[in-house]
Design goal:
The protein has 302 residues and is of the alpha+beta class. The chain is built from seven helices and 19 strands. A hairpin with a 2-residue loop joins strand 2 (15-20) and strand 3. The N and C termini lie far apart (40 Å).
Length: 302
């Protein structure tokens, strides 16, 4: 399933929908019509586990002519939002070999490959949705940068899980654009650099794990104003998804709805010669195979 959080042209905001081709189906409305129950938001849906997914799949497989009025919308007629507000967004730095090399040249990071995943966090207030602005505050940064990343959405509580168990704890996949103010690292710490409001565009959908046969073989691409800046594949991760989940959960409990941004390939603005950074008026598009494209404008926030 391809799950979205949306607002229809008329009606209540922030509905849970399943996107099928160019249509968005209101899952709670379908459930009521069938005498069943489903949560009305994606985070609650994730927490509800397999029973909710099975109910939703059954409803979507039903007679397409038997839909209550107002429960099906054309995609072009709705506004998509961030799929959910995660409890935690855990970022992974330096997780592609070529990005390690470019970061050592441009960001003074270690040129040696890290022996363990490099982790940081973004607050939930950094999350913003598709089409929503990335805030460029010129009083705080002149080096606003992009990073296209596959996002892993946790579906089951994970603590001290092994790599072999890791995939059992994944609900699905999405996209995070890991926005960074490169000139706001503080004594090497990244929280303010990466955690400001709007610095975690997320979406446009969460695709359930059963729809992604091999998340370690997905093409990624990022464009600024239509020009390709990043192009790679998740198979080039230094630490694969199972290793990331095992490493993080060795000391931090991962809960349903938490998001792991699995790292960025090379091609970030700071690594360009000369460096390139986002400015108001730019549009950034991050694409991950099977997930879609997450597009955001950059606006002046001073």
């Amino acid at each position: 399933m391809r799950l979205v959080t949306y607002t229809p042209a008329t009606g209540p905001a922030d509905r849970l929908g399943a996107q099928v081709d160019d249509l968005v189906h209101d899952l709670a409305a379908l459930a009521r019509h069938a005498g069943a129950e489903l949560p009305g938001d994606l985070l609650s849906f994730v927490r509800a586990g397999g029973a909710a997914r099975e109910t939703a799949a059954r409803l979507l497989a039903g007679d397409p002519t038997d839909r209550p009025a107002g429960s099906v919308h054309r995609l072009e007629d709705v506004t998509l939002h961030a799929p959910l507000r995660p409890g935690k967004v855990i970022g992974v730095g330096l997780n592609y070999v070529e990005h390690v090399a470019e970061s050592s040249r441009s960001l003074d990071t270690d040129k040696e490959l890290p022996p363990r995943p490099v982790l940081f966090s973004k607050p939930a207030t950094a999350v913003t949705g598709p089409g929503q602005p990335i805030l460029h505050n010129g009083d705080l940064t002149a080096q606003l940068d992009w990073e296209c990343e596959l996002a892993v959405v946790i579906g089951r509580t994970a603590f001290r899980v092994t790599e072999e168990e890791a995939y059992d704890h994944i609900f699905g996949y999405s996209i995070v654009n890991d926005i960074s103010a490169r000139d706001q690292r503080r004594s090497g710490q990244w929280f303010f650099s990466k955690g400001q409001d709007s610095y975690a565009p997320f979406g446009p959908a969460v695709v359930t794990a059963d729809e992604v046969p091999d998340p370690m073989a997905l093409d990624l691409e990022l464009r600024v104003n239509g020009v390709t800046k990043q192009k790679s594949n998740t198979r080039h991760m230094l630490f694969p998804i199972a290793r990331l989940i095992a490493d993080i959960s060795s000391g931090v409990t991962l809960e349903p709805g938490d998001v792991i941004a699995t790292g960025s390939p090379s091609g970030v603005g700071a690594g360009m010669v000369p460096p390139e950074f986002l400015v108001p008026g730019d549009t950034v598009e991050a694409t991950v195979e099977l997930i879609g494209t997450l597009s955001n404008p950059v606006v002046d926030a001073r």
